[in-house]
């Protein structure tokens, strides 16, 4: 198994702090196959959602990580990947791939198939 370090947490509307923030702003969270803001969006932080922007904020959570020469790559992805692929699975899938674009395609294909 390969080592991975999560450098962020998923922002989901069923998390107590996120749900409270949404409700304090006048929004609601409901179950619609998964927990969703306004019954629509399955993430509680994002940018670009015009209809839900007063509830789904783009404010980042900042976390610092020390990076040294042992870091081989960084995977930036959304819930479309992380809802179906674990951190360790993602690392194992792309570690043998030397090209960043090919690695991204591999992750996308895997998420789509699952």
From TrEMBL:
SUPFAM superfamilies: PP2C-like (SSF81606). One of its GO terms (molecular function) is protein serine/threonine phosphatase activity. Residues 1-114 form the PPM-type phosphatase domain. SMART domains: PP2Cc. It comes from the Eukaryota. InterPro entries: PP2C, PPM-type-like_dom_sf, PPM-type_phosphatase-like_dom. This is PPM-type phosphatase domain-containing protein. It comes from Trifolium medium.
């Amino acid at each position: 198994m390969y080592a991975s370090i999560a450098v962020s947490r998923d922002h989901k509307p069923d998390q107590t702090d996120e749900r409270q923030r949404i409700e304090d702003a006048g929004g609601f969270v409901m179950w619609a196959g998964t927990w969703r803001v306004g019954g629509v969006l399955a993430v509680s932080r994002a940018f670009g959602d015009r209809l839900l922007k007063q509830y789904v904020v783009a404010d980042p959570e900042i976390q610092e990580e020390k990076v040294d020469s042992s870091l081989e790559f960084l995977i930036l992805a959304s819930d479309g990947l992380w809802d179906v692929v674990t951190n360790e699975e993602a690392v194992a899938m792309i570690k043998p791939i030397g090209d960043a674009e090919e690695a991204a395609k591999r992750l996308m294909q895997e998420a789509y198939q699952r």
